[in-house]
Amino acid sequence: MNKPLNKMAVQATINGESTVFLCSPGQVLAEVLRDELELIGTKIGCNTGDCGACSVLVDDRLVCSCLVLAAEVEGRSVQTVEGIANGGELHPVQQKLLEHGGLQCGICTPGVVVAAKALLEHNPDPTEEQARYWLAGNLCRCTGYDKIIRAVLDAAKTIREEAA
Amino acid sequence: MNAYQEFKIIGSRPVRPDGLDKVTGRARYGADLNMQGQLYGHVVRSPHAHAVIKSIDCSEALAMEGVLAVMTGEDLAIPGDQMLGSGEGAMALRDVVPMVMSQGKVLFHSQAVAAVAATSPELAAEAARAVEVVYEVLPSVTDIHAALAPDAPILHHDRFPDGYPEEPTNLATHISLTVGDPDAAFDKADVVVEQTYSVPMCHQGYIEPQACVARVDAVGRVDLWCCTQGHFTVRHFTSAVTGIDLGKITVTASEIGGGFGGKTTVYLEPLAVVLAQKSGRPVKLVMDRGDVFRATGPAPGAETRVKLGATRDGKLVAADVECLMDSGAYNGAPAGIAAFMATACYKFTDARSTGRSVYTNKPKIHAYRAPSIPQVTLGFELAITELAAALQMDPLEFRYLNAVEEGDANMMGAPYNRIGLKECLEVARNHRHYKSAVAEGAGRGIAMGYWINAGMQSSATLNVIADGHVAILTGSPDIGGSRASMALMAAEVLGIPFEHIHPQVAATDAVGHTDLTGGSRTTLATGQAVIQAAEQCVLEMCRRAAAEWEVEPGVVTWSQGAAHYAEHSLTFEALANRAGTMGGPLTFSSSLTAASAAPAFAVHICDAEVDKDTGRTTITRYTAIQDAGKAIHPDYVEGQMQGGAVQGIGWALNEEYLYNDEGVLENPGFLDYRIPVASDLPFIDTVIVEVPNPLHPFGVKGVGEVPIVPPMPAIAEAVYQATGVRFRDLPLNPPKIVAGLCKA
User: I need a surface site. Which of B93, B154, B288, B643 has the fewest CB within 10 A?
Assistant: First the structure.
């Protein structure tokens, strides 16, 4: 009785797995990821696209999932923080955030992980300034960004070294 | 003298135990738990800043299909004068209840007036719109000076500050403190400065909105999950606000997405409990970001007049400080702290400090990182800098000459123990930043700060697992890496690997009482409980080894994770493994009221550039120096210093609550309430100074709060040096800078 009747079925690839979910036409992706698919790593800090805690990749494009309608991902591929590690192996961005202490409360961390991964795929050798501007949409109130930026630049270096 | 002088693992930087869950998205925060069969709550909020509630009609909402409960302020306790201890200071129940839900009158815009619970969030929102509230709208006041004007609308007709006649006023508190004879002392001064400085109301700006889910079972036991800095405080306050027995409530603290003092009280939790009680179903409530800004306690704005006198050779001889602070709609009691601690960095024999707070039609203010001190310190430190300039002295040397050290007392009376302020100033003086030339067109400011730091009650339980691992339960929500520091301290005492220690934040029923994570006290006080529990464990293991070897326990020593006597040794793992046959389970608990707290001091250096066309200020270099006593995990000490500095930078340059004439907050979101983003900032250099706290076994001093104290005056001075125009009214946002430059 709690489901409105006008639900639609959406088929998408979520973290590499073909998935079908139900959503109402007005429901945003962040809510569906969290409440229907139990991917709680995607956080909602503002619901207005200002904080970046809900950052996900849709077909490799970095978006705020609170500003994307769930129905818009029909036929697309969505990657959330839960899909960033390769099985048990952390992505260098995740590993370096841990090593540098680049998180305190951790609520912004999933969004930072997703956004930084997208940065390094787009630009494997960012300057400090480029990293700061790319991550300007991910608000962190705890760290002052110092250790986050250091971790991301260090992760870039690791990826370049692994590729060389 | 500290019990521990040499450290094996303290001071190293291992990966925090909770880190993996946080970088992979598995960590569960306030909004991340759903209970089976849960309903969704929605809060009805006042569209007026000041009004009498004539009636509330919930019947239409309750009649909607899928709506299972409605409530109003009548469902909560009617508060009298009883005080609730909350750790950093007691709060009156009458100041807590209306921040949960109003009763009869609303005193700020978006104050809760009713709540509903329904089977979906959409339905709950629709039902909330169907609640009919009739208001008699009253004139409102949001400015602290206007609130004290004779014709101001009065918020409380039944509250009178101590020493005032019983006539209506918006003055909430008035505290004055004098040492020596400041008036006579000013006569001895060769140079006197007197200026007024102001800081706006701002918000803690934690990224995670308040969230909770509550369940009440058939016999009335409450199971509450929420994001909080203190789940014991939530239990206490929820009990007081709802009237449910304390012993019937269990609170589990979720991971917490920032708090900075803002999550040391209740807003949604009692509502979820009452709605769950009424509906018989679990109820989840998540606050909307706009409501976080509009209806949770922000930090007070303040205006501070500072008068300082010094002799020609640079000795401070007198101070007179008067701080007027915003209290919001209820008593947030910010002014006492400001008055007591304003002069705390300096030696004074003659000083007067006055604090007043004022009721306004805004949410009741709440703690924000070193509450009240950044506001009063902006004025005090800038006045110090202005006085140094008038004396033609270097601002750092002037401070050094007058800085407090061991044995000096502040206005609260007790002399300081071994403090590290002068050591921080020495580091600043010799730092490459301070020695470097200021870039062309830039300016440099320096300022220092004090915070008292708390001790309070903490508990820890240590359970030895049969394979030699250890579970540590504490009652302190981990807001910034405290589980890492707990594990490090236990590893240091036990001599076993850090990775073998599994620290957890336990629910209220699972560990001894623990006051909230606040007051920069967690690593100090809860850490001390962990140290004591670990020491008991070592003692018991030595006793068991002695029994095995048939020797006196006193001859057995403990090192490198094993008991030793002559050629014998028994490892921690072996003793854990054989616990069942050597005396039974190895479980140790320690509870304490920490008397080991020591104050924190910090010195910050800031370089800033100002674009004279746009008025934009850019922080080009920043160095934070702080006495940590002993840094347990330096990454997270530096993290506190950097995070606090950047919050101060945001407050100095941008952050500000903007109310319109109707008392409505005009910037209740991160787009218009702009906190610093990564591209605004340089790296924040840090220097941890370690002057051990003689009262703590490891020498720890609290570190979390003081970093927000020096930034505002350091930045304001840097802007003055860059522009030649003195700004005493924050924030230094582009319109204000441009206007100031045009006037000059």
Answer: B154
Taking only the tens place, the pLDDT of each residue in B263-305 is: 999 999 999 999 999 999 999 999 999 999 999 999 999 999 9
Residues 6+ apart with CB under 8 A from B413: none
Supply the ipTM of this predicted assembly: 0.97
Largest Cα separation within chain A, whole Å, is 57
Q: Is the pTM of this model over 0.90?
A: yes
Q: Could you tell me how many CB contacts below 8 A there are between chain A and chain B?
A: 191
Report the residue of B15, B16, B18, B23 to disrupt the A interface, i.e. the one with the largest count of A CBs within 10 Å. B23
Select from A83, A109, A140 the last residue of a domain.
A83
Separation between Cα atoms, residue B740 and residue B727, nearest integer Å: 8
Give the contacts of B595 (CB within 8 A, at least 6 positions apart). Answer: B455, B695
Residues A109 and A141 in one domain: yes
Residues 610-639 of B with CB under 8 A from A: 633, 635-636, 638-639
In this structure, the answer to whether residues A55 and A79 fall within a common structural domain is: yes
Residues of B in contact with A32 (CB under 8 A): none
| CB–CB contact B255 A94 (8 Å) | no
B676 touches chain A (CB under 8 A): yes
A97 to chain B nearest CA, in Å? 8
B88 — pLDDT class (breaks 50, 70, 90): low
CATH number at residue A46: 3.10.20.30
The pLDDT assigned to A1 comes to 43
Please list every residue in chain A whose beta carbon sits closer than 8 Å to the beta carbon of residue B260.
141
Q: Is A2 inside a domain boundary? A: no
A58 in contact with chain B, both atoms CB, cutoff 8 A: no
Does A1 map to a domain? no
Numbers of helices and strands, H then E, in chain B? 21, 28
CA pair distance B590, B510, nearest whole angstrom: 13
Domain extents for chain B?
Answer: 19-27+455-594, 33-138+204-295, 140-201+298-402
| CATH class, range B140-201+298-402 | alpha beta
CATH classification (class only), B19-27+455-594: alpha beta
A145/B contact by beta carbon, under 8 A: yes
Residue B246: CB atoms within 10 A of its CB come to: 12
Does B605 score more than 90 pLDDT?
Answer: yes
B33-138+204-295 CATH:
3.90.1170.50
- Compare all CA atoms of chain A with the CA of B637 and give the residue at the minimum distance: A101
Tens of pLDDT, residue by residue over B14-63, are: 999 999 999 999 999 999 999 999 999 999 999 999 999 999 999 999 99
Residue B707 has pLDDT above 80, yes or no: yes
Tell me how far apart the alpha carbons of residues B507 and B486 are, in angstroms, rounded to a whole number.
17
B284, B272 Cβ separation under 8 angstroms:
yes
**Same fold for the pair B19-27+455-594 and B140-201+298-402:** yes
pLDDT, one tens digit per residue, over B403-422 is: 999 999 999 888 999 999 99
- Say how many domains are in chain A: 2
Cβ separation A47–B34 shorter than 8 A = no
Residue A79's SS3 state is strand
Stretch among A4-18, B203-217, B413-427, B579-593 having the lowest mean pLDDT: A4-18
Are residues A79 and A102 part of one domain?
Answer: no
Minimum-distance CB partner of B207 among A107, A147, A148 = A107
Structural domain of A39:
8-83
pLDDT bucket at B87, cuts 50 / 70 / 90: low
Task: For residue B646, give Cα distances in angstroms to B186, B302, B356, B652.
Answer: 37, 20, 28, 10
Given B119, B255, B288, which is nearest A106 (Cβ)?
Answer: B255
